[in-house]
Amino acid sequence: MNWILFALSVIGIGGPLVSAFFAILGTFKPHGKISPRIHIVPSDSIIDSPSRLEVKTR
Amino acid sequence: MVVNGITESDIRTTENSSVLSEMIHWLLYSVALSLLYFALTLLVWWVTNHPVTWAELLKSGGLVTYASTLSSKTAGEYIKSGSRITPLTSFCVFGLICILASSAGVYGLLLSLGTAAPQPPSSAPFVAPERLVEFSWSIAIVAIVYGFCFTLNGKIRARQS
After folding, report:
1. Where would I find the H helices in A1-58?
2. Residue B109 CB contacts under 8 Å (≥ 6 apart), including other chains
3. Complex ipTM > 0.90
4. Which of A7, A19, A35, B48 could make an SS bond with B95 (beta carbons 3.0 to 4.6 A apart)?
């Protein structure tokens, strides 16, 4: 194998695969048990029934 | 936790299916349809009885251009998807620089194969054309893997921010 092709292989294949590996590692990192996307906010009708809660998801 | 009949599991399932459909969309439009160009070129050659060789098809550098375009687009969308710079952002830029540098190197070598300058009969090309074609495929596959990983991470990151 030519030396220039070897150098290009190391840079062009090794570098992106290492960064892709860390991207996958970051993707599947656990983020805790409770989903942060659930927000419990008081309903508009809180005057009528103060104990009532409404769940909004976004 | 169950609220109004909606469980965390339901929400996560909906999010996962949404990300899955976006990734299928990405694979269809950024990979399959982009590479269809080469398949159609082969079809035209077959119809016109042109001899089909990989070196002939890829010596214009179409595949390395595709690799650099895909990785640049991926990095741009990934950086745009998050509001703050993380260590993964620097890995993304590092991967992009590696793909761009190697693509430029291979493109230069591919162009040197088709030079019109007169050469002595005994001179061999600096790198064998077959090796360059193989390397073009390798760069394209690596760029697709890189693009897939960072697009997936960017979509999940965009939902969390």
Report:
1. 3-9, 15-27
2. A4, A5, B126, B127, B132
3. no
4. A19
Residues of B in contact with A16 (CB under 8 A): 71, 95-96, 98-99, 142-143, 145-146
Q: Please, which pLDDT band fits residue A3 given cuts at 50, 70 and 90?
A: confident
Residue of B nearest to A7 (CA): B102
This prediction has a pTM of 0.76
The letter for the amino acid at B144 is I
Q: In whole angstroms, what is the distance from residue B155 CA to residue B31 CA?
A: 17
Residue written as token pair 């703050």:
B84
Q: Which two tokens stand for residue B127?
A: 């790198």
Q: Are the beta carbons of B102 and A1 separated by less than 8 Å?
A: no
Of A15, A24, A38, the CB nearest to B98: A15
Q: Which tokens in the block code for residue B14?
A: 């909906």
| pLDDT of B99 | 96
Contact B91 A5 (CB under 8 A): no
Query: A41 vs chain B: nearest CA distance in angstroms?
Result: 12
Each residue of A9-55: pLDDT tens digit? 899 999 999 999 999 998 877 654 444 555 555 555 555 555 555 55
Judged by CB atoms closer than 8 Å, whether chains meet at A34 and B94 is answered as: no
